[in-house]
Amino acid sequence: MTETRVALITGAGSGIGKATALAFLRDGFRVALAGRSLDKLEAVRAEAGAQGNSLAVTADVSNPASVRALFDATQGKFGRLDVLFNNAGMNAPFLPLEDMPYEKWREVIDTNLTGAFLCTQQAFRLMKDQTPRGGRIINNGSISAHAPRPNSAPYTSTKHAVTGLTKSTALDGRKYDIACGQIDIGNARTELGSRLPQAEPMMDVNHVANAVLQMAKLPLEANVQFMTILATKMPYIGRG
Fold this sequence. Notes:
Helix content is 40%, strand content 17%. The protein is α/β, with parallel strands linked by helices. Helix 1 crosses helix 6. It has a 7-stranded parallel sheet with strand order 3-2-1-4-5-6-7, with helices on both faces.
């Protein structure tokens, strides 16, 4: 890896995004941090002590104009993009399917799926025309991309769909030297993870950040297509 490597991380103000941004910055990447709260993003930059190697941009990944502005700002600051981590996401309340409000369904779809698509689209446009050409896109999947929890139709549906997006992106990116993989995460100790409907074993979120960094540092001739990282004792196989 050269010191010129540039990464863009969405949802970088907290949780997995924050831990990953810190790991990338400490490893020498230049990082664009995107999220809804500028204060949180700036706090991450300050914690890393790498303000000169980073950029904080408020962005709504479900909004095409906001996503375009995010990638324009990243290109303007760093001149290129080597890694996109599509991490921004949200969950819906754990409600019976028949009681789920349409508005909440739509919000989860727009953030988790449409947001990943819009960011991937902009990354393609940037990566295929830069020199050296190409880059890597890593999507944040979930154990829910394989096995759902009860009363989780919106979130589970988006994570199954993200797997399809990952496969299509990997295939369509080949001609541009763009690799795409997915990390499926189970029970990282974050604020979001603490909202599970029942107590379950957790793992340190830094294990996830280090796994994403490992995927990102591969040369473009190699790709981790799918990685699953989870708390060893969490319910997974059959959710048992």
